[in-house]
Design goal:
This protein is α+β, with helices and mostly antiparallel strands and 290 residues long. It has one domain: 4-Layer Sandwich (Double-stranded beta-helix), CATH 3.60.130. It is 25% helix and 24% strand. It has eight helices and 15 strands. The strands form four sheets. Strands 1-2-3-13-5-15-4 form a seven-stranded mixed β-sheet, with helices on one face. A three-stranded antiparallel β-sheet has the order 12-6-14. A three-stranded antiparallel β-sheet has the order 8-7-11. The longest helix is centred in the C-terminal third of the chain and has 15 residues. The mean pLDDT is 93.
């Protein structure tokens, strides 16, 4: 079937209706959804009854190799027993809401910073697919910023300045900015990766800023000047004109392109309201020829 896209924001993001992703195997429809990702950057699917296994299987059908070296895996075992399935939840192994001083809760607070999934890996993340299983009876939106439009809105001087620069990304760095402390062994497992500050979608040729709270420094610049540049770019890229907020409902699946967007979770009373989401991220690896 041919998917119908309803655009949600003047610049990007669209809702797709009438598709059961658990049952989707048709190559033509999958290809049309990938084309939709190239155009909109974020796709929203309502009423998706995913199991954990079903979500993992769909992610592999849609985009191949799964990201499993998540940052939080350095802290201990995943309660879902699969490192490719990120637990974006505020409950522990017994299903109880985590305490305020729980180390995993404190680590996860950095999800409220603007970031790009798996930018601290090489290869980095491509598509992230977040499934809402339990949502709180309070606002707990996820915001997305269109990094393509942000790049296109730069003045010519700044576009010339950022072109060709490279940035080191570390998930430990983003947590440390909030006061989170790591052991030496944990830091050894979270060394990070270097990526271009401006990346190009090989299918469309469209360029985008590649930013995140994980960005520690610009390789080609002294640290103070590089961090000031990154701060200015983050301020520019997260202006409200570039931002779309998704209000979650149970059964939602949202897919976003980490090459085209940056995102953050918005705060809610996570000491009172239970929330359970599952995220699968694929790696930015070129597909092998058929």
């Amino acid at each position: 079937m041919k998917p119908a896209f309803r655009q949600l924001h003047p610049l990007f993001a669209a809702e797709v209706e009438g598709i059961d992703l658990m049952q989707l195997h048709d190559p033509e429809t999958l290809a049309a959804l990938r084309a939709g990702m190239d155009q909109y950057g974020v796709l929203v699917f309502r009423d998706q009854s995913f199991t954990d296994a079903g979500q993992l299987a769909f992610a592999q059908r849609f985009d191949g190799v799964l990201h499993s070296k998540t940052g939080i895996s350095a802290l201990g075992r995943n309660r879902l027993n699969n490192e490719a399935l990120s637990d974006i939840s505020n409950v522990d192994e017994e299903g109880r809401i985590r305490q305020t001083d729980d180390r995993r809760r404190m680590y996860s607070l950095a999800n409220r910073l603007w970031h790009t999934d798996a930018s601290f890996q090489d290869p980095p993340g491509r598509y992230s697919m977040l499934s809402a299983r339990v949502v709180p009876p309070a606002d707990a939106d996820t915001e997305f910023a269109d990094m393509r439009a942000a790049h296109e809105a730069l003045d010519a001087k700044t576009r010339a300045q950022v072109d060709g620069l490279h940035v080191h990304h570390s998930i430990a760095y983003s947590r440390q900015t909030l006061g989170f402390e790591f052991s030496a062994e944990e830091l050894e497992a979270l060394k990070g990766a270097i990526h271009p500050l401006v990346r190009t979608n090989p299918r469309t040729g469209r360029r985008s800023l590649y930013l995140a709270s994980h960005a520690t420094r610009v390789v080609e610049m002294p640290v103070p000047e590089g961090r000031l540049l990154l701060r200015d770019l983050m301020d520019h890229a997260t202006q409200r004109t570039f931002v779309h907020a998704h209000a979650w409902r149970a059964g939602d699946l949202v897919i976003w392109d980490n090459l085209a967007t940056m995102h953050r979770g918005r705060p809610f009373d996570d000491g009172v309201h239970r929330r359970e989401l599952r995220r699968v991220t694929t790696l930015d690896i070129a597909a092998e020829p058929a």
